[in-house]
Specification:
By secondary structure, this protein is α/β, with parallel strands linked by helices. It has twelve helices and ten strands. Bound molecules: the ligand O=C(COP(=O)(O)O)N(O)CCCCOP(=O)(O)O, calcium ion, sodium ion and zinc ion.
């Protein structure tokens, strides 16, 4: 069924695992992710960004996710990723989403609280849960490039005040991750001291890690081998994701690893099969690569296998 993340996060927190939140943009990506979760007997969050709504049309995405629920009977959360204002959150809540993110992290603290509370007050009476964000990811932040020196990580005391004043159900924090394939200039590093402080001040409260793709080298290499040009890409080592799951992180956002898995498989197929022009062949390879990547994440990194 379509579920909220409330109970899923509660169990994940208690057992020290995290739930993957995978971005969806078309049928094959959804099918690949959902097959993996079904095989791993894992709860699942499918998340839709503004870009995905523009690309695929919200009606198609909603129906595709409903098909996944009907086909697998998995507990699936349908989540709005990076909702940028009250209107889009309201629209998704009215449209049957079970969870929404209101991303007001670029606003001053008090404005972030006010807007987040407004979404919470609309969502909760309708049985929908809310994710907010405090602190700015480095790199590209909400289409505004945040210069590294302005990138402010989440302040632990502010996080506790924010949760108390908004009633939000989960909080995306900034501890060194960023979106995309170029997360770290030098050695990958997350601020675990900060994460531990935040989780100590918010015991039992689900934290969310954005920009959590590993940028798996096998896919980057395959992309580059078959015509791609993605130099110097690097992401969050999987050991760090496991560590984060032990300190209150219950939701791990993954999009870039999906893109790299799908793109590398399609590039390879087209290179190896120059005479093929049946999209089902290369889109099918892409789907398989997504499935394998998600199975790996669930089984070897997130720890959410056999939880349903
Ligand atoms: O935290 C993440 C993903 O982080 P990752 O890049 O490490 O996978 N996300 O929230 C996914 C961001 C999706 C990008 O938006 P568009 O669809 O508009 O391009
Ligand atoms: Ca943000
Ligand atoms: Na999100
Ligand atoms: Zn994000």
């Amino acid at each position: 069924p379509l579920v909220t993340s409330k109970e899923l996060f509660k169990q994940a927190y208690e057992k020290g695992y995290a739930i993957g939140a995978f971005n969806v943009n078309n049928m094959e990506i959804i099918q690949g992710i959902v097959s993996a979760a079904k095989e791993e007997k894992s709860p699942l969050i499918l998340q839709v960004s503004a870009g995905a709504r523009k690309y695929a049309n919200p009606i198609y995405l909603k129906k595709l996710v409903e098909s996944a629920v009907e086909d697998t009977d998995l507990p699936i959360v349908l989540h709005l990723d990076h909702g940028e204002d009250f209107e889009i959150c309201k629209q998704c809540i009215d449209d049957g989403f079970t969870s929404v993110m209101i991303d007001a992290s670029h606003l001053p603290f008090e404005e972030n609280i006010a807007l987040t509370k407004k979404v919470v007050d609309y969502a909760h009476p309708r049985g929908v849960v809310v994710e907010a964000e405090l602190g700015k990811l480095a790199g590209i932040e909400d289409n505004i490039s945040v210069d590294a020196k302005d990138a402010t990580y989440t302040n632990p005391e502010e996080a506790r005040e924010f949760v108390e004043k908004t009633g939000v159900d989960s909080l995306a924090i900034a501890i060194g991750t960023s979106h995309g394939a170029y997360k770290f200039k030098g050695k990958p590093e997350l601020d675990f001291e900060r994460l531990k402080k935040i989780s100590k001040l918010l015991p039992g409260f689900p934290l969310v890690l954005h920009g959590a793709s590993t940028v798996l080298s096998e896919y980057v290499e395959a992309c580059n081998k078959f015509g791609g040009d993605i130099p110097g890409a690097q992401g969050v080592p999987e050991e760090m994701i496991k560590e984060a799951a032990k300190h209150g992180v219950c939701k791990v956002n993954i999009d870039t690893d999906l893109r790299l898995a799908m793109t590398s498989a399609i590039r390879k197929h087209l290179h190896d099969n120059p005479s093929n022009f049946d999209p089902r062949k290369y889109l099918g390879e892409g789907r398989k690569a997504v499935e394998n990547m998600v199975k790996h994440k669930i089984g070897n990194v997130l720890g959410s296998s056999d939880q349903i």
